[in-house]
Amino acid sequence: MEKRELLYEGKAKRLFLTDDANLVISEFKDDLTAFNGEKKSSEAGKGALNNKISTELFKLLDSKGVQTHFVEMLDDNHMLHKKADVILIEVIVRNIATGSLTRNLGIKDGTILPFTLVEFDYKDDDLGDPKLNDQHALILGLVEHQDELDKLRRVARQINAILKPYFQNIGLNLVDFKLEFGKDSNGNIILIDEISPDNCRFWDIESGEKMDKDRFRQGLGGLKVAYEEVLNRILGK
Ligand code: 5GP
């Protein structure tokens, strides 16, 4: 598949057109950003790790009947996937309280939530990704119908029901994660973007160690070692 002109450059990926109008290529970058782009760095090899981790997780979800944009991993930094119109809603799934949930609501860090919490953030950097309720999402026209919001929640819970035990099995608590969805050329809602330690929180079950982008956000160091460990556990190494 030929990589054609640049369509879009985001904080962690570049998106390229291909010779097939329905397919695009994501290039996973080594750049790291946090706090809405205020903190920036780069870690050689980070993009390849996220590409490989996302590939394995998309394959897992595909095998369980979740519709995703994934087609194939092309090389270390490139993934071929379906083109989709992005829905500007970040779907946040939480099993354990930390991050903005503890900051906003004063819930003690590390509290196991009585049920899985699914939240919506408006994907808008200029506004700092504010929280959305269903009425906000409909007023903003981010989706057409309430049904679509219900579907985002349903699929997010389905994904959590697959990933949470999967990670538990390899010694990681899936604390929380962010999903993005889009509409394919047939109007179907599909999972897009990536699933990696850049947009998930993983805590080692035994040591409690953070194995995700919080190592960068909180200046803990050892980010690449942690991402490599996540990939190795996924690959059963
Ligand atoms: P929080 O709202 O606590 O900052 O984040 C909740 C979860 O969603 C974390 O796993 C975090 O990595 C992910 N998340 C939330 N917003 C973003 C975002 O704008 N970019 C990325 N990469 N992840 C996000």
Q: How does the SSE layout of this entry go?
A:
Layout: E1 6-9, E2 13-17, E3 23-28, E4 31-34, E5 39-42, H1 46-63, E6 70-75, E7 78-82, E8 85-86, E9 89-96, H2 99-105, E10 112-122, E11 131-132, H3 134-139, H4 146-169, E12 172-183, E13 189-192, E14 200-204, H5 214-217, H6 223-234
Antiparallel strand pairs: 1-2, 2-3, 3-7, 4-5, 6-7, 8-12, 9-10, 9-12, 10-11, 12-13, 12-14
Helix pairs in contact: 1-6
Bound molecules: guanosine-5'-monophosphate (5GP).
Guanosine-5'-monophosphate binds at residues 90, 92, 99-101, 129, 176-178, 198-201, 213.
Can you summarize this structure?
By secondary structure, this protein is of the alpha+beta class. The chain has helices at 46-63, 99-105, 134-139, 146-169, 214-217, 223-234; strands at residues 6-9, 13-17, 23-28, 31-34, 39-42, 70-75, 78-82, 85-86, 89-96, 112-122, 131-132, 172-183, 189-192, 200-204.
Beta-strand proportion: 25-35%
- Tell me how many strands there are: 14
Main β-sheet description: 7 strands, antiparallel
Oligomer state of the chains in this structure:
single chain
Report the end-to-end length measured between terminal Cα atoms: 31 Å
Low-confidence stretches: none
| Bound ligands, named by name, code or SMILES | guanosine-5'-monophosphate
Shape: globular
Radius of gyration: 17 Å
Number of H/I helices:
6
Helical proportion, percent range: 25-40%
H/E series: EEEEEHEEEEHEEHHEEEHH
**Integer average pLDDT:** 97
Class by SSE composition: alpha+beta
